[in-house]
Amino acid sequence: MEPSTTNASAPEPPPAPSKPPPRLRTTPLVPTILRERDLPGPMSLGRLAAEGTITTLDDMESGYWSEHAATLYGRASIVHRIIPHSTAACALTAMWVWMGGEFPRTLDVLSRSHFRMRHFGHRVRAFTRKVTPRHLVTIGNLRVTDPTRTACDVASLHATAAHPNDYTERIVDLMDAYDFTPDDCATILDENPCMSTMPRTRACLSGVRRSYDHRHADSRRIDRRHGDSRHVDDRHGVGVAP
Fold this sequence. Notes:
Largest sheet: 3 strands, antiparallel
Number of helices: 7
Shape: globular
């Protein structure tokens, strides 16, 4: 009688190595800033600008894609490419990042350097103000002052503005968009009593407070009026808001 034999199961082959994940694109398909030399002909940038696809920066030599400027992250990417290296956007440039609109005529940055050359046709205006880290934020690769500090910086430029009332309304718009008040700006000023621009900054913020209070008083009146209407409807058993 032959001895019984047990067939040991053959070892499983090692698993095939998995394919590496596809590499993500590190640069956008559409460049943030477009220069005339990137296009096939000298008239191409002008044609794109005429169609509204490009917003020019410096005498039809460069521009940014208008579609990119429609979002906060897109505007931050544009400014990061334009301002000098190792600086942070502040004042009117920061205002554009937060709110959009027409691109500012100067590039406002926090830096101790002096910039003689223009960047993309714009004069670089450097401010040496001390800004605490809690008032600096990062959007993508851009460092920028937060909305509250930006409002204070813009208010300090009020006396040099061609149309000061435009600054006032823009600051109130910024407050409404990012949910802060003139009291928050006053707190920042109290923390920086040695600012050389303190008198004109406080004067501007006084006008901002009047405009802010007037705008929100109108909102409260509308809310009260709607509330009274809802109350009348409820008394008559009608559960429909006006």
